[in-house]
Amino acid sequence: MNPRIESLEKMLDGPRDGALLRFSLGNEYLKAGDPAKAANSFKNAVDRDNNYSAAWKALGKALADAGDHPGALAAYERGITVAETKGDIQAAKEMTVFAKRIRKALDEAAN
């Protein structure tokens, strides 16, 4: 197993466990090519901090990479709302572009 992932997993459920740890673990899973585990980590991150716009964006990417396009779209839409509320304009713009691409793909698949 990836030593970075092992190190982060050892901290789970400890005093340092939180949104940032779960976000970091999700990023490591993405790098390792495991979008399903990454998505689970990002979901845990946003459960701990619902206003973590970067985690919403990463959750959308992980779900899209895992093939869950409706889930990815929902994550991006929630992330856009969070980012706009926080004034995180760049993240909102990026997620808007990603959401638009997914909507288009879903529309094409439905037709």
Give the overall pLDDT as a whole number.
96
CATH-level-2 architecture: Alpha Horseshoe
Q: What fraction of the residues are assigned to beta strands by DSSP?
A: under 5%
Low-confidence residue ranges = none
- N-to-C SSE series? HHHHHH
Query: If you consult CATH, what is the topology?
Result: Serine Threonine Protein Phosphatase 5, Tetratricopeptide repeat
For the biggest sheet, the summary is: none
CATH top level?
Mainly Alpha
Broad shape: globular
Q: State the separation between the terminal residues, measured CA to CA.
A: 42 Å
Which secondary-structure class do the elements indicate? mainly alpha
Give the full name of the CATH homologous superfamily: Tetratricopeptide repeat domain
Q: Number of folding domains?
A: 1
Percent helix, as a range, is over 70%
Q: What's the β-strand tally?
A: 0
Protein architecture, described:
With 111 residues, the chain is mostly helical. The chain has a single domain, classed as Serine Threonine Protein Phosphatase 5, Tetratricopeptide repeat. The chain is built from 6 helices and no strands. The mean pLDDT is 96.
Any chance you could write out the topology, listing elements then pairs?
Blueprint: H1 3-11, H2 19-31, H3 35-48, H4 53-65, H5 69-86, H6 89-110
Structural features:
globular; 111 residues; Serine Threonine Protein Phosphatase 5, Tetratricopeptide repeat; single chain; 80% helix; mainly alpha
